[in-house]
Amino acid sequence: MPRASRKATIHDIARLSGASASTVSAAPGESWRERRISEATVEAIRSIAAAEGHSATVQARGLRKARSGLVGMVIPLHDNRFFASMSQSFEAFSRQRGLVPVIAPSMRAPQEERRIVEPLITCAVGYMAIAGATDPDAVSAMCNAANLRHVFADLPGRGAPPVVPDNNRGAADLTRCLLTDRPITGATCRDRLYFIGGGPADYASARRTEAFRDAPRSAMREIAALCDRLGGVPAGVLVNSLTAFEGGLGHLSGLPPEDLRSSVIGCCDHDPFAACQPFPVHMVRQDAHGLIREAYRIIDQNANDPVLRMVEAEQIVPRTFHDRAFSDHG
């Protein structure tokens, strides 16, 4: 067994895992796929490496001592208002500290997250912020093996401090707004409040990549099918994300304004252009800047506890009442 007084080497990990040194060297990145090494073997090697404190590469250990002045951030996508705001805030906080931010999108693919993290470790980034991680355990294993400080933002992870929006409170407040604006009796199918998009495990699954890219078309189909099934627009619709909301507008914007007079719409994300719709939309604006500010507070304090930090969201109430909204649009 490796002695506690020194770092485990590739040969130590090879002996503990029963794999060759060459196989161990391929495990941190993605080259193991090309070499047709089994995923079970790779995961076993990564687990042992993390437990033994083995850095991803010898080069990474050497470069980290050089203090490159780089800091890294992984985000799911650039073309999303929320993640773009987080990216801008991360850049601002980094430059305030005289650091150079390196920000890369993972497209919500676990293998892409790992492929991004590996070269950032090699480039000796000072720390890492991971937003919307789809496989936080794997990312943490790589960062911890390289002794790299990291923070999870937006979605939680067990291997590093997490900072997330208070989604439960935000959705609860939004639902209360909808119920206040339009009492839901539930007397008929159309008198109920419907939720569009999302699922209990969507964010933790690699399948979210495909679902996310298809969300606009999917939401449009779902809302159209729901309205067709109910014989009209329901009393209330609560939409999970801005992407799904944009898709739903493809159907709702084509309806006569009077069809929406007795309905309320809510979205758990925010876009200021929603105020331009011919019907009022209640929205929740996540505090992207607050999430990164809290993440940097954790980094500055060198905290490493797994306590979940929650950042409150802001309720955006429609500027106009139903009657005014519909009269303005004829």
User: How far is the N terminus from the C terminus?
Assistant: 79 Å
Structural class: alpha/beta
Q: Which whole number gives the mean pLDDT? A: 79
Oligomer: single chain
How many DSSP H or I helices?
13
CATH architectural type of the largest domain: 3-Layer(aba) Sandwich
Gross morphology is: elongated
Query: Describe the biggest sheet?
Result: 6 strands, parallel
As residue ranges, the low-confidence spans are: 1-5, 56-66, 202-216, 320-330
How many structural domains are formed by the residues?
A: 3
What is the CATH topology assignment of the largest domain?
Answer: Rossmann fold
Strand order of the largest sheet: 2-1-3-4-5-10
